[in-house]
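Hello,

Our lab assistant flagged a job as stuck in the queue for most of the afternoon. It eventually completed. Since we weren't sure the result was trustworthy after the delay, we are filing this so someone can double-check. Below is the sequence as submitted and the structure that was eventually returned. Let us know if re-running is recommended.
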Amino acid sequence: MGLAETDGLALLVYALSAAVTLGSVGGGVLMFTHRLAWREGFAARAAALAGAVAVLVLAGSAAAPALGEVAGASYALQLALFSAMLALLVGAVTWLYETTAWTALFCCTAGYALQNFASGLTELCWALAGVPETADSSLGAHLTRFAINVTCILAVYVPFYLAFVRKISREALERVDNPALLAVMAAVMLGVIGFDLLIKCMGDFGQLTIWFMAPLRLFHGLMCVLTFALEYELLVNRHLQIEQEAEARVHAERERQYELSRANIEAINIKCHDIKHQIRALAGGGAATDERALADLAREVDFYDSAVRTGNEALDTILTEKRLACANEGITLSCVADGAALGFMRDADIYSLFGNALDNAIEAARKLEAPSLRSISLVVRQAAGVASIHVENRYASEPLIGQDGSIVSSKGDEANHGFGLRSMRLTVESYGGTLATLLDRRGRIFHINAMIPLP
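-- returned structure --
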């Protein structure tokens, strides 16, 4: 083989090796970031980033033989280069995705730890297989090393994703804000990367035998696992905190609805008290009875006496209450409900679910100027083994839509408002169901559809 061919093969080996390394790092990070929301112009940003990476790979491959001698003699230089790569990855994630630096830091350090684990396993397999590591090795040796590398990456990434990563929710990732991640980043840079480079440097200087290298690689793999375990623990704790906050808000929402119910009942009692006075005044005789007063009185009695009857006491209570609220606001509430379809649900869940749905509908209908448009429709029925719930109402102004497609509160205080739909979704999902919202922009109608499987 000629000198030019040898140099060409060496360049190809360096380029292929760099591409596999960057690909494994990027794949480890992408394993966590693929759930995050893209920034506007994501395709163009990704193309530009891919072009920059390609240029760096080619430039690094061309300069690798010369830099290898310097880098091989300088442990600090290699550590600085790989640490800089981690910092650049954090910047790339925040550039591509709608996320915070904390979330990007979590994704990158977790992906980096995963890549180092696969890389350490690859180095160990190379040593056990006795594959030469020099650039002037035969093409067969290079292909063998490449095959072992790819096999180790797949053997680590696939089970890891199935066992852990796919269970991580997008919401938990987006809410990572723990300063302890700084300590994790330091551990990754100084511990995992530093120890990996130390093993490689010792191997380059011929100070490692297979019997000494194997325990070091096993210890390095343990460090990678512990690093990710620490990050995963932080994420699990954050997820539990989110669930506790959700439960606290659901409880607060139920307390608020209870206070509203009590206020409505007091209003009914006051109205009934007024009606009794009117009856006593009419029964007292004296002046001639006003026919119009009697007609108004009859309508009021009929209104307060006509409670909703669906076959479910909790549903009857909330519908009767909201029917009174709608009447006071000049809103028509039409209801076709089979309460027996919800017999498997707890009363508190029924009250919370329909209370939130009807409160949001009433708030939207209240803003409509035309009285004929102030209407709310509710349908509850069971069919094909599921209980279906449909609520629709007209709206005056276009609701705000968040980046995840959910409705954003128009009150501006996201900490204390806008939790109604989330509470409804949590309630429905707790029974194994699904909840979806739909905006009919042409008819300016907002739809809520929930499907809950019957036990």
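-- support follow-up --
The delay was a queue issue, not a problem with the job. The result is valid. The two ends are 73 Å apart (CA to CA). The chain has two domains: 3-241, 308-453.
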